[in-house]
Design a protein that fits this description.
The complex is a heterodimer of chains A (about 650) and B (about 600). Helices cover about 30% and strands about 30% of the residues of chain A. By secondary structure, chain A is α+β, with helices and mostly antiparallel strands. Chain A folds into two domains: about 140 residues, Serine Threonine Protein Phosphatase 5, Tetratricopeptide repeat; about 325 residues, Methylamine Dehydrogenase, Chain H (7 Propeller), CATH 2.130.10. In chain A, the strands form nine sheets. In chain A, strands 4-5-6-9 form a four-stranded antiparallel beta sheet, with no helix packed on it. In chain A, strands 10-11-12-13 form a four-stranded antiparallel beta sheet, with no helix packed on it. A four-stranded antiparallel beta sheet of chain A has the order 14-15-16-17, with no helix packed on it. The longest helix of chain A has 17 residues. The two termini of chain A are about 45 Å apart. By secondary structure, chain B is mainly α. Chain B contains 19 helices and four strands. In chain B, the strands form two sheets. In chain B, strands 1-2 form a two-stranded antiparallel sheet. The longest helix of chain B has about 140 residues. The radius of gyration of chain B is 60 Å and the shape is flat. β3 of chain A pairs antiparallel with β3 of chain B. Chain A: It is found in: Nucleus. Chain A: Keywords: Nucleus, Repeat, Transcription, Transcription regulation, WD repeat. Chain A: Belongs to the WD repeat TAF5 family. Chain A: One of its GO terms (molecular function) is RNA polymerase II general transcription initiation factor activity.
Chain lengths: ~650, ~600
């Protein structure tokens, strides 16, 4: 059931064997003899192989991993190597210059680490001070971390070091530029430079015109460079699932039923949302691609309701701006960490730093608990309003608290049927709560460290969580162990989101990369690089084709899932972006963050200006829309940071955040 | 505890590093006394690195708590993550609190500066901390259909006049001009006015001059001379063709100061020697000029001004000098406003004014003279209106004459009569003829009108005097003469017309009398007819009654007859029936008797037989 994904970079046979031996070592240590025997048998490893390896394991392990940095070169020469490389690049033609500049950062990092590893501390410091300033601004955070490493002992256990030593830095480059570089390296015979480029860099060469500065910076910024071109080749079924056939009664109570029923029926069918669902989308996955729970009667009723409301919704765009209703959370002295509004906009859940969760009602109907077991037995189970009778009016209130976590609650999410709430916390657990009994049902323990985010599948049953342990995990509510573990991010996975068709999830990480994963196979199918800071919020467009991402770098990026290309950069926020949402028909994107501002962006215009014919295989042919006019409106609050934006089914924009104390 | 604070110790490197001494001190505190220099240095460096790492990791917790500020809590969480005991006691009570540290004398220990807390004081304190309230949500509209409420605050600045720094030259120019205007040197003053009137480069100074006038008017209201000078300034600005007064505050401010001069009971007017009437006349003229050249339907200047004048005039509580100002102001505008505002008010106003004039008590002397002034102004107005009306009338007539001249001579008489009819039917603003209006007005102004006429002339002279200050006196005199001649002519013509009108009126009266007579006759006839009708009606009624009675009588008779016959018939029938009965009875008796006889005979026979 679990499918552990290893890092994408290829490993040699030697390291494979090492891993195997390490696993055997682990099994032996924990006295799991049967498994050990079995594994030995299968892998064809003898006891002798294991024994000598285990002696002095800890030392040889590290030594092996870091051996790449072992170099007997004169430490004073590194500065010269680097300067030479720089002068060469500067002497190149302008077209190649910008591309070749890309190799400077990884070369700089690895040279520094080599110096540190070989214990030339003073030289390392000098080298760092001399050249760290000229690196790109978006690498400065990493450089700060790097500069704190001054001894060989520090390199062990440092997350960043692990990433640099274990993976290659990926650079996309046109063939011309690559040939230039190759010629230069061959002519000058600079051994350490050559080793670094051969061992720690992966240059992805493409045929075509070199990219310009703008294109390079648009997709740059990842912890380890850009995504390989092959990373986004896999086919993604981004279409929506075929809607189950429900007879939607068209004779709406609100509308005049006299004789006009027929034309109205046609009108309703013309709604693009309904149209699209009725026909077969070639990009949609099979409805049984992943098993989904069957629809209950109540779900069907809810679907009908949602259709009805969707018919009445306001079309918003540049000429029809949305109305924004802001819910300020007052008296939250303990600190609000997350706010979330449920799909039908009737409930709002908030997580607090004091480990509590509160659920507020946004409608006049109050929150009620279920009756006790004895009382429930008296109820006539066949009556039509059995659900109504189950509820206890005495327990009604405007707000309910859920207490159970032992650390700040970092995420809450309410299932679409409004029966469950999922929450994740700093204590490493994910908890499932019932919104009928207002109590904790399950505590899912799988993550080692803080769980940053958790999300329900739009179809219920499944949920996904992610956290500091650099993994995202897919769970089903009826299993206490995860169904999938998605590993591949190089740093904390900060946020996660379900695709509207539940077949994919997307994760954003502190390694400044957004990855999309297939829930069926567990593979990473898309890698989006371009963010210059940790990603904290992502959002799928209602049609499932586009994704918007935002985070600490104050920029919102819009991506096309079909091609894996960046469509637009939306710049305007002055602080980290923590909330994003598409309007219900997908024409407008709303965002909010720590700068206490709700902003509205014109997605329709991006899509109009997007050239769908451009060849995705040549990076230099891509254009990113960063038009300043895409910002339609900006609505500042007094001081309240915007932690949640949400469009109701009728396209009223709800926003929420804690009042600054 | 001391670990964290030690980071303050600055090394020559970029990062704070624990010194050997600190490490020794810490080691000492846990009971390790012997520690080599090398070990201490290494430990110090390593501990520093771990702290840096923890600090870097703690920022992740800050980001996920969606804060901009790193808290001690975040650091503790980062420590716990790397299996280190958290540092207790540094949780801030207040988020804004800044920690202060203190060193011991020998500088080896750094500790947190904390106040002593007196528990007794806290226990006895009345200041019970209030409940901060439950966590709740509050909804409000941030924007409605894209328009944000908070954005309206940006538009506030437009209301204020823009304060711009003047250049030094402009400043000195302004000072010079204003000084010379308010100064005593007449030559300089004249120079200043001519410059204001002609200089095209004073545009940037316009707001300053406007505020100079509007503020000046209020501060020097005791000094007629200065007020007049200010009005001169205003006039000079008005006549400067390069100035554009339209921008909102300027025009309003200027009109306001004019209205002030025109309508307010100025302090200067308390002194009887001061001729404030002239100032008012002057202000009225300027007001008219400003309104005619700058009023647009958009700025409502005309409408607002007329409204104010009307309010002042209709308010009997206002002093007479204000009324005078209002009348003059209206007169200077145009005859349309005289017709619309002044004339309808006269039936109310004239008795009020006359009552003041008629009061001959000594205390009233001043008011009376004021009232005479107003009286004169009203009279002047009416006369002006009349004159213009007459002129219109004459124009009409002359046009008609021209027309008739074209027509043939034989038709001339017919034409004349037509003309008269036409002149009567002409649309007239007074409802009736000019003459009638004149006579109406005559009612208000009693036979002493001749006297007031002189006053009127005086007034004219006064105005002329005001103008003398600006224009040359000779020209004015010539004009005056011309006006006088024109007026004489007009008056003559007027008289002629009066005669004509009177004739017409007489004819009308005659016609009316005839009509009345006819009416009386008709009424009489009607009455007679009515009487006849009544009589006829009565007769008819009588006949009808008689007929009815007759009918009733006959009907009764008939009824009785019928009844009688019926009774008779009944009796007959009864009688017949009785007879019949009797007969039948007789018959029956006879039969019975016969039968009995028969039976007896039979019996006898039987008996006989038996026997």
């Amino acid at each position: 059931m679990n499918s552990l994904q290893s890092q994408s970079s290829p490993k040699s046979d030697v390291s494979d064997k090492q891993t195997l031996l390490a696993v055997l070592q682990f099994l032996k240590k924990n006295n799991l003899k049967c498994t050990e025997e079995l594994l030995k048998k299968e892998a064809g490893v003898t006891d002798d192989d294991v024994k000598p390896q285990s002696v002095g394991q800890s030392e040889s392990d590290v030594a092996n991993a870091l051996a790449a940095y072992k170099s007997s070169d004169d430490p004073t020469r590194y500065t010269d190597y680097y300067t030479d490389l720089k002068t060469f690049i500067e002497s190149c033609l302008d077209v190649h210059k910008v591309e070749l500049y890309l190799i400077l950062y990884p070369v700089f990092v690895h040279m520094y680490l080599e110096l540190v590893y070989n214990q030339h501390e003073r030289h390392a410091m000098e080298f760092f001070h001399k050249f760290s300033g000229e690196q790109e601004y978006y690498y400065q955070d990493d450089l700060k971390q790097l500069s704190s490493v001054t001894k060989r002992e520090h390199m062990r256990g440092n997350q960043l070091m692990d990433n640099f030593k274990a993976s290659r830095f990926i650079i996309k480059m046109s063939r011309d530029s690559y040939n230039h570089l190759k010629r230069y390296l061959q002519e000058n015979q600079m051994k350490p430079l050559l080793t670094i480029i051969q061992e720690h860099l992966f240059i992805d060469v493409f045929d075509g015109v070199p990219r310009n500065k703008q294109q390079i910076t648009a997709t740059g910024g990842g912890l380890l460079g850009e995504a390989e071109r092959d990373a986004n080749k896999a086919k993604v079924f981004y279409g929506l699932l075929k809607e189950p056939d429900i007879n939607i009664p068209v004779d709406d109570d609100d509308e005049a039923p006299e004789g006009e029923d027929k034309p109205k029926k046609k009108k309703a069918k013309k709604d693009p949302l309904l149209m699209r669902k009725s026909k077969n989308d070639p990009h949609a996955p099979q409805s049984n691609r992943i098993p989904l729970p069957e629809l209950k009667d109540q779900d069907k009723l809810e679907k009908i309701n949602s259709f009805r409301e969707a018919i009445k919704r306001v079309r918003i765009g540049a000429d029809q701006m949305p109305t924004v209703c802001f819910y300020s959370i007052t008296n939250a002295h303990q600190g609000v960490t997350t706010v979330n509004v449920c799909e039908d906009s009737s409930l709002m859940s908030a997580g607090f730093a004091d480990s509590t969760i509160r659920v507020f009602t946004l409608t006049p109907s109050k929150l009620r608990g279920m009756k006790s077991g004895d009382d429930l037995e008296i109820i006539d189970k066949d009556s039509d309003d059995v659900l109504e009778r189950m509820m206890d009016d005495r327990s009604s209130s405007e707000v309910k608290s859920l207490v159970g976590h032992s650390g700040p609650v970092y995420a809450t999410d309410i299932s679409h049927d409004k029966k469950f709430l999922i929450s994740s916390s700093e204590d490493g657990s994910v908890r499932l709560w019932s919104l009928l009994t207002w109590s904790n049902l399950v505590c899912y323990k799988g993550h080692q460290y803080p769980v940053w985010d958790a999300k329900f599948s739009p179809h219920g049953h499944y949920f996904v969580s992610c956290g500091h342990d650099r993994t995202a995990r897919l769970w089903s509510t009826d299993h206490y162990q995860p169904l999938r573990i998605y590993a591949g991010h190089l740093s904390d996975v900060d946020c996660v989101e379900f695709h509207p068709n539940s077949n994919y999830i997307v994760t954003g990480s502190s390694d400044r990369v957004v990855r999309m994963w297939d829930n069926q196979s567990g593979n990473c199918v898309r890698t989006f690089t371009g963010h210059k800071g940790p990603i904290h919020k992502m959002c799928f467009s209602p049609d499932g084709r586009f994704i918007a991402t935002g985070g600490v770098d104050k920029t919102i990026l819009l991506w096309d899932i079909a091609s894996g290309n960046m469509l637009a950069q939306l710049k305007g926020h002055t602080q980290a972006v923590y909330s994003l949402t598409f309007s219900r028909e997908g024409s407008v994107l709303s965002s909010g963050g720590l700068d206490s501002c709700v902003k509205i962006w014109d997605v329709n215009r991006v899509l109009q200006e997007y050239d769908t014919d451009s060849d995705a295989t040549i990076p230099s042919s891509l254009q990113v829309n960063d038009n300043a006019n895409l910002l339609l409106g900006s609505f500042p609050t007094k001081q309240t940071s915007v932690l949640c934006v949400h469009f109701t089914r009728k396209n009223l924009l709800l926003a929420s955040g804690p009042v600054a104390i | 505890m001391a670990e964290k604070e030690e980071r303050k110790v600055v090394d020559e490197k970029r990062f704070a590093i624990f010194s050997k001494e600190t490490i020794r001190l810490i080691a000492d505190s846990v009971g390790i006394t012997e520690i080599t220099d090398q070990a201490a240095t290494l430990l110090g460096e390593d501990a520093s690195y771990r702290l840096r790492e923890a600090t870097q990791n703690s920022s992740q917790y800050m980001k996920h708590a969606k804060r901009k500020k790193l808290m001690t809590d975040d650091f503790n969480k980062a420590l716990r993550k790397s299996d280190v005991q958290p540092v207790y006691g540094h949780r801030p009570v207040d988020q804004e609190q800044v920690w202060t540290y203190q060193h011991t004398k020998d500088g080896q220990i750094v500790f947190l500066d904390e106040d002593d807390i007196n528990l007794v004081d806290i226990a006895l304190d009345d200041n019970i901390p209030c409940n901060p309230g439950a966590v709740s949500i509050k909804a409000h509209w941030l924007a409605v259909e894209g328009s944000s409420k908070s954005q309206t605050s940006q538009g506030l600045a437009s209301g204020k006049p823009i304060e711009k720094k003047l250049s030094a030259e402009m400043q000195t120019y302004f000072d010079r001009i204003t000084n010379s205007i308010l100064g005593k040197d007449e030559e300089l003053m004249k120079l200043a006015f001519t410059d204001l009137r002609t200089n095209a480069q004073i545009i940037p100074l316009l707001p300053y001059f406007v505020s100079f006038i509007s503020n000046g008017v209020k501060t020097v209201s005791h000094d007629l001379k200065q007020l007049t000078k200010l009005l001169h300034t205003l006039r000079a600005l008005l006549n400067n063709t390069s100035l554009y007064l339209e921008p909102q505050p300027y025009l309003n401010l200027l009109v306001q100061s004019l209205m002030y001069c025109l309508l307010e009971p100025l302090t200067a007017s308390i002194d009887l020697k001061n001729d404030h009437w002239v100032l008012r006349d002057y202000a009225a003229r300027l007001l008219a000029q400003i309104l005619f050249s700058w009023s647009t339907p958009i700025n409502h200047l005309m409408y607002n001004t007329v409204k104010t004048l009307k309010e002042v005039l209709y308010d009997n509580n206002k002093p007479l000098c204000s009324h005078y100002g209002a009348v003059i102001g209206i007169m200077m505008l145009d005859q349309k406003h005289i017709q619309e505002i002044l004339i309808p008010h006269l039936p109310v106003y004239m008795p009020h004014l006359n009552s003041i004039i008629d009061d001959t008590s000594r205390a009233n002397a001043v008011t009376k003279s004021d009232a005479h002034k107003v009286y004169g102004a009203v009279l002047y107005c009416v006369e002006y209106l009349l004159k213009s009306q007459i002129k219109e009338f004459e124009d009409e007539i002359s046009r008609e004459k021209e027309n008739s001249a074209i027509a043939t001579a034989s038709d001339s008489e017919v034409n004349k009569s037509e003309q008269k009819v036409k002149s009567q039917t002409l649309p007239n603003p007074f409802g009736t003829s000019v003459a009638k209006f004149y006579s109406e007005m005559y009612d208000y102004f009693d036979p002493e009108a001749a006297k007031t006429g002189e006053e009127l002339l005086d007034e004219f002279m006064e105005q002329v005097r005001v103008q003398e200050e600006i224009r040359k006196a000779q020209l004015e005199r010539e004009k005056l003469e011309k006006i006088r001649i024109a007026r004489d002519k007009q008056e003559q013509e007027e008289r002629n017309k009066m005669l004509r009108e009177k004739e017409e009126r007489r004819r009308q009266e005659r016609r009316r009398a005839e009509l009345e007579r006819e009416l009386i006759l008709k009424r009489k006839e009607e009455e007679e007819r009515l009487r006849m009708l009544k009589i006829q009606e009565e007769q008819r009624l009588k006949i009808l009654k008689e007929q009815e009675e007759k009918r009733l009588r006959t009907m009764k008779e008939q009824e009785e007859k019928k009844l009688r016959t019926l009774k008779e018939q009944e009796e007959k029938k009864l009688r017949i029936m009785k007879e019949q009965e009797e007969q039948r009875l007789k018959m029956m008796r006879e039969q019975e008797e016969q039968r009995l006889k028969m039976m007896k005979e039979h019996e006898e026979q039987k008996l006989r037989g038996k026997i």
